[in-house]
Amino acid sequence: MILRIKQILIKEFLQMFRDVRMRMVVMVMPLVQMMVLAFVLNTDVKNIATAVIDPDNTPQSRLLADEFTGGNHFAVTHRLATDKGVRRLLDAGRVRAVIRIPQHFSDDLAAGKMVDVQLLLDGTLSNDSAITLNYANQAVASFNQRLAGETMGTAALSTGPLDFRIRAWYNPNLESKYYYIPGLIALMLILIGLALASMAIVREKEIGTIEQVMVTPIRRLEFILGKTLPFLLTGVVTMTMMFLIARLIFGIQITGSIPLLYTSAIIYIMGNLGLAILVSVTAHTQQQALLTAFFILVPAILLSGFIFPIRNMPVLIQWLTMLNPMRWFLQVLHGIVVKGVGIRTLWPHISVQVTLAGIFLTLAVTRFKKTLE
Amino acid sequence: MKLQRLMAVARKEFIHVWRDWRSLVLAVAIPMLLIALFGYALTMDLKHVPTAVWDQSKTAESRQLLSLFNGSAYFAIERHIDGYRELTDLIDAGRVMVALVIPSDFAECIRAGRPVTVQAIVDGADANNATLTVGYINAMGQIYNRDVRILPVRRLPASGGIRLEPRAWYNPEMESRNVIIPGIIALVMVVIAAMLTSVTVAREWETGTMEQLISTPIRVPELVLGKVAPYFVIGLLDVAIAVVMGRWFFDVPLRGNTGLLFLSASIFLTGALFLGLLLSIVLKNQVLANQIALFTGYLPTLLLSGFVFGIYNMPKAIQAITFIVPARYFITLLRGIFLKGIGLEILWLNAALLTIYAVIMVLLCHRKMKLKL
Question: What is the ipTM of this complex?
Fold first, then answer.
């Protein structure tokens, strides 16, 4: 049996890596992707192009504008005296925020009145608008604080008794790379394990070589192992390379246990390969396999909590995400890489992973037939 | 070029697609699934952040602060704890995202009007949501301080200040659904167009039917146009489904011109179809062509187009790359037409660049396609 598995493994590896272009695709692509993505998936909003409408144009109103630009979150690109042309600036997307200071701004402030300052945001990227609004509120709070300090002396510097001391654990500067880079690794592994593997298995069917395999004495399990092990190995190698880059270029260290990380990753990849075999059993052409794999991949990625928080989904969908292997692997990954927690915290996640992978693989082995239809 | 031969190839391809029910159903089901997911389940707006509280004060004052948190849509107090260890476990396991630690002298300080610090520990592993959460906590602090001023205990002298009046244009509720669903059209079209056509010519080579085609009197433009025709129809059908579902099921506003929407979709679709075909012609291998299509079509559309991640936040080098991503122009067109209700008077440059891209793809296909062995 070992001999036969060895033979088919040799064949599969030859087939997969004979083509230089294929080697590039499997090995280089994930790395390039990571380099680009790591820079893109940086959702820290900075230098928001801002127009200031300031008919008042007094030291006081300029001070307010400075308060906005102080933290590097806003960058004033247009200064206007009237509303004219604002609509066009927003329409063309040349500014994403407009601060509209009313007339008599400094006079009203000096008279101790509450003055309304309008903030127009481009809502076409809603998440960024929410973050922008946060920054604007901070700028206004600090302006008010300074104003209160000027009128009442330093004693009243704080606007109230309550003060939050906020600390972010594991990632004190709240850098998004600690979240996205491990997530990308989970994403890459499901792409390789599901899309690439299912197409490669169906390929044999489509071009007709499966008939040759069927007449050999190879057994079902041996065939499945021979087909999937190369992808398991590719996945592990890819993951290792991605972690190396994460370490060398992005300075992300694995704080927890590395053996536990690999155990969980292997379980994850095997579960995905189980799904890939299930897809390939039902598909006849590579195009079908690709579409079916995508039909599974899209919800798996979107409902994993990677970009969209699971807690905000409807309860029914939240229950469905329990079946999503990427969800559990993502939590283990963040737990081990960023938080440095161990098996004591992660055993429930890993047990679910094992259960899911077991179900997928059992289904795959029972549904797979080494016969022609 | 003869229309008759073109029609013959187109008919053959239509029969291929038509006979392959499964691919056809999936080609329509994938966009519907995506839109349903984004309409019902996925939102980047963070609400009901799970919160643990360690209330060492246990007084009316501390409960008032907590009810402020619980009463808002942003926080959900799920655990009351009384120890640091429990707090660590909860955050480690990711069961809560925020832990508030209220000191034992909280009530006395508030009554005396002395400053008091409440500790807020945030799970920084998910940096994005942590950033939003920090904003929420600060906002809660401001609200509490403002309300506390009204209490008779500590009445500050009335002073002037400014009040921010935020308004998000084009998307007043800042709903991510309104932003994502128009973008899905681009994503779906790349999946359907580039990825599906990437396998078409390669399949002919792999299964050996290309030789039969070469022996017929067919010419290059006839073959190429015939190949893409069915996918063009499917692609436009998908756009129609997306528009109808978005408009009537999920109330995404369509403020601009529907004709312009379909026109620009057709141009983008042409570019994507011919990109897939080009890969298929050049690589002659389905798995490989598909992987490259994923890399050059799907991923840039998802990540470098401004679909979820704003281009203005990216580093300059990456921003430069986005200029060669056609989806960037298409997404701008889509958002402009759907949300801003603007037309070619502002969007002409985007439309022109999109057209140039499509023309280049068509010409490249024409040059690379050779009907020779």
Answer: 0.74
